[in-house]
Specification:
two-stranded antiparallel ribbon; single chain; Rossmann fold
Amino acid sequence: MNEIILSIDDLKIKFCKQVYQPSDDSYLLYDTVKQLKLKGKIAEVGSGTGLITLMLAHNNLVIASDLNIMAAKCTLENLKNNNLDDNVDVLCCDNLTLIRDGEIFDYIVFNPPYIPTKTINEEDISWSGGKEGIEVTINFLKESIKRLKQSGRIVCVLSSIMNLKALTKYIEELGYKTKILTKKNFFFETLYVVIIEKPSI
């Protein structure tokens, strides 16, 4: 079977077995992050093939993590193939749990699994978001909020098939606000890329 290679901008992204392949949500996040022109210390959680990480690595030092060891290896392989591996540390872990205490970021980027499912197991961790589609995102937020600088922000994909009302309430209870950056309608869902940040005083 021939390798599948995605060409986007100046990047060549190899698709790897047992790794979530870039889809509508990935490309929407890619385009939005590209327009934001993020600068600073950045982490991507759930790097998958490495599409977003590679784009960020052009102008930043990045930490990329993925719970799937095959995804972490795929990200690293694509970084090496594009001569960007000097700019990124790749970790296999849940969220940013392997990073030392006190390590904080200007931005954390995440395209969470958000399909509502009864259980989350090894076969569906790339797309299963839990019973209401928000459980994985909530766990991510619990871990990531403490990894942000005071002015730090989270850039995240959300979907209309999640329980967005409950998720928005949770974010507000954390003392943050959600702003929609991009919105795109599809046949079965609406995808959003949002920025989560502290309200201005």
